Amino acid sequence: MTAMDNLLFITWNPDLFAFHLGSFGVRWYSLCWCFALLAAYVLVQRLYRQQHIADKLFDPLFFYCFVGILVGARLGHCLFYEPGYFLAHPLEMILPMRQTANGWTFTGYAGLASHGGTIGLMLALWLYVRKTKLNIMHVLDNIAIATPASAMFIRLGNLMNSEIIGKPTDVPWAFVFERVDMLPRHPGQLYEAICYFVFLIAGYVLYHKYPQKVGTGFYFGFCLTTIFTARFFIEYTKEVQEAWEAAMLINMGQILSIPFILLGSYCMAGGKLCRKLGEPR
């Protein structure tokens, strides 16, 4: 690649830290996670109030979702992508540290899987509805309407970290991730973030047009189907996350997306289980 060729692409090498407070630095990735949680909190609280659900029933929701997503995403990465290592080092699944030749080193949770986070969220919401006695499909639909906003911010965090990079390409909007190499690559993180923004708008348009569908599982299904279908196809533009995926016809991210797409389609179609668990009509 010549210097002139480089001008055709977007050079990407942002500072990892958004700002510093004394010696403590706040990373863009952490900030994006905060925005993700804040967006979900504000949007779902607004939906609860529009639907006249008491604030006391909303208050514990944030705790359940935060713990469920974090634990599920962490365990999902460890067990789906690096099971050999983490089953041999189980403490590193739960501690934000890694054992090295020089002892334990703080790394943060370097590895979070969206599929695991989704499973963790669903389990957390099951516990939440057992406590609050709210209808499970009503809660899932409300969470689903706001979920694309959170997913969008998380992928922007991945972009700021120059992680989950795309395959080399010559498209004019390719990013050169300088912290990785000097090859122009698909910005897969940005592709996903844009898709999730579109799904957020589409979900809200549908909600305002068909508010009576909240509680049927339709919006839960719409969220799963759109997000994981986009994820499935965008995976073709990404580098594999683990070397053992290179020989696979479809990678682990795509394999894990298929059950969510099927479940989402089932819910959108108003499957028997959704009708059983949904609110009486």
UniProtKB/TrEMBL annotation:
Keywords: Cell membrane, Lipoprotein, Membrane, Transferase, Transmembrane, Transmembrane helix. GO terms for biological process: lipoprotein biosynthetic process. Its EC number is 2.5.1.145. GO terms for cellular component: plasma membrane. Pathway: Protein modification; lipoprotein biosynthesis (diacylglyceryl transfer). The keyword Cytoplasm does not apply. GO terms for molecular function: phosphatidylglycerol-prolipoprotein diacylglyceryl transferase activity. Belongs to the Lgt family. Catalyzes the transfer of the diacylglyceryl group from phosphatidylglycerol to the sulfhydryl group of the N-terminal cysteine of a prolipoprotein, the first step in the formation of mature lipoproteins. This is Phosphatidylglycerol--prolipoprotein diacylglyceryl transferase. It comes from Paraprevotella clara YIT 11840. The gene is lgt.
